[in-house]
């Protein structure tokens, strides 16, 4: 549990953080945007020192053309490579608030369902501007890039990248709009066995490629399931994310079920994990990869 009592050191850094956020001067134009929770954030000038509290937020900030303004990231912020050189302030589920405040951010990009609410509330109480994101559609990715670029004053770069992604996804959609449907199971995790429904971005990618997610109608975004229900659904292809998309042992447990269509047809596929699991422009290349895998499965 996060304590509500601030240490003396933490309080000092809190004072510094408050000083870093200057008040709105009379006559200055505001930059007002609405975040993923419906809250409006207004800045009187582009942010200059930005903290990103999820790997996806880090990628999106760079995509928005504001990578040189990012001063703090969390663990696993590994793309682009420049992000690996930035100061770490914990992980997305446990922020080192003292380390974060020491870097004097004037904008904090948070993850709607991933960051600890108590810590985010504390940052807000200290007067730090926060902007929550969690795009769950392809258009949402483009729109988020545009909003972040507005907050950072990098609209030219951000809007151009957002449009590149938008057009790229539209091209893939058109290419596969008449693809033969194929039953697919996406494995998020082996133990416990987890998958995604159609509301998840990965589920939307499967649909984009003509895949029929065998667990698409489940109510939870990332439901836990059993091997028995997978066998009953009998997908023709099974996919999972792995480092660089290289084969590992994450799908080996399905090989003991030779009657499973995906196994019988050798349709156990691996794709790079971080591009498909983060709502960033790299989702375009991940989508192309999945579409190609499903084309292979159709051919078999």
In words, what does this structure look like?
The protein has 300 residues and is of the alpha/beta class. The chain folds into two domains: 8-168, Rossmann fold, CATH 3.40.50; 177-299, Rossmann fold, CATH 3.40.50. Helix content is 38%, strand content 16%. The protein is built from eleven helices and twelve strands. The protein has helices spanning 8-20, 55-63, 97-102, 117-125, 138-152, 155-175, 201-208, 227-233, 261-264, 273-277, 283-299, and strands at residues 31-34, 40-43, 50-52, 70-72, 90-91, 94-95, 107-111, 130-133, 182-187, 211-213, 237-242, 268-272. A four-stranded parallel beta sheet has the order 4-3-7-8, with helices on both faces. Strands 10-9-11-12 form a four-stranded parallel beta sheet. α7 links the parallel β9 and β10 (211-213). The chain is elongated and about 60 Å long. It starts with 7 loop residues before the first helix and ends with a helix.
């Amino acid at each position: 549990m996060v304590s509500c009592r601030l240490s003396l050191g933490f309080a000092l850094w809190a004072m510094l953080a408050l000083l870093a956020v200057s008040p709105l001067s009379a006559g200055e134009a505001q930059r007002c945007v609405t975040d993923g929770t419906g809250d409006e954030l207004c800045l009187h000038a582009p942010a200059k020192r930005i903290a990103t509290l999820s790997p996806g937020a880090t990628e999106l900030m760079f995509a928005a053309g504001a990578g040189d303004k990012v001063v703090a990231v969390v663990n696993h912020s590994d793309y682009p490579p420049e992000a690996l050189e930035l100061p770490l302030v914990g992980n997305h589920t446990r922020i080192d608030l003292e380390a974060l405040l020491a870097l004097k951010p004037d904008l904090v990009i948070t993850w709607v369902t991933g960051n600890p609410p108590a810590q985010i509330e504390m940052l807000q109480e200290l007067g730090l501007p926060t902007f929550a994101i969690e795009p769950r559609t392809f258009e949402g990715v483009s729109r988020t890039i545009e909003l972040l670029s507005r907050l950072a004053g990098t609209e030219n770069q951000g809007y151009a990248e957002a449009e590149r992604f938008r057009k790229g996804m539209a091209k893939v959609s058109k290419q596969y709009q008449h693809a033969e449907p194929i039953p697919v199971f996406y494995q998020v995790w082996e133990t416990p066995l987890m998958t995604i429904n159609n509301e998840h971005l990965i589920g939307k990618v499967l649909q984009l490629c003509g895949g029929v997610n065998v667990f698409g109608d489940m109510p939870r975004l990332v439901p836990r399931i059993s091997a028995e229900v997978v066998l009953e659904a009998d997908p023709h292809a099974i996919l999972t994310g792995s480092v660089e998309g290289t084969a590992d042992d994450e799908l080996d447990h399905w090989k003991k079920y030779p009657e499973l269509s995906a196994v019988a047809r050798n349709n156990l596929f691996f794709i790079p994990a971080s591009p498909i699991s983060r709502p960033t422009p790299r989702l375009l290349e991940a989508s192309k990869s999945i579409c190609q895998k499903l084309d292979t499965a159709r051919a078999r």
